[in-house]
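Components:
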Amino acid sequence: QQPVQSPQAVILREGEDAVINCSSSKALYSVHWYRQKHGEAPVFLMILLKGGEQKGHEKISASFNEKKQQSSLYLTASQLSYSGTYFCGTNGGATNKLIFGTGTLLAVQP
Amino acid sequence: NAGVMQNPRHLVRRRGQEARLRCSPMKGHSHVYWYRQLPEEGLKFMVYLQKENIIDESGMPKERFSAEFPKEGPSILRIQQVVRGDSAAYFCASSPPSGYNEQFFGPGTRLTVL
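Structure:
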């Protein structure tokens, strides 16, 4: 039931790009992306809604394939501050609760 | 423009004691969510509340755990007779009454059970 994220971990150098994928076995109404640094709270990045609406961060983009129940987060020209664990949170529409994915650890090196 | 507030930030309890975690949502937000994060793991949904109502408690353990969001005051997550397995970070999030259901997280309460 928990969405599966891939890759589990990725190491980048500053300026490189990364794609993080989130795949659910259930029909989705929305997908929410968060970044969490160690010992801190998750920080909201992006929300994607069924039907194509998006709302979120200026420097981060994402896609949502409703038919495949998948979402991808695109990080371009990565900065050191992008390091952290990225979680997708999925919502099936029945209530507002989010089911979070397995997480992707991103490390950006100078 | 205060964000979601949680207190205490750190809580130490001995086995068998009670833990009370508090959450004040962002101004204008009427929906509150509690999530638990075990060490080195992801976030697990526990409960979703609106003022004076529990909307979805499908993630709450059947025993020892309860939550409320009264008409006045913060939301409370209560854990009775704590056990070592309850040691975790407990995050509260809030969202506005309308819109896209963006959930903003508080700093969390780190519960340690000795």
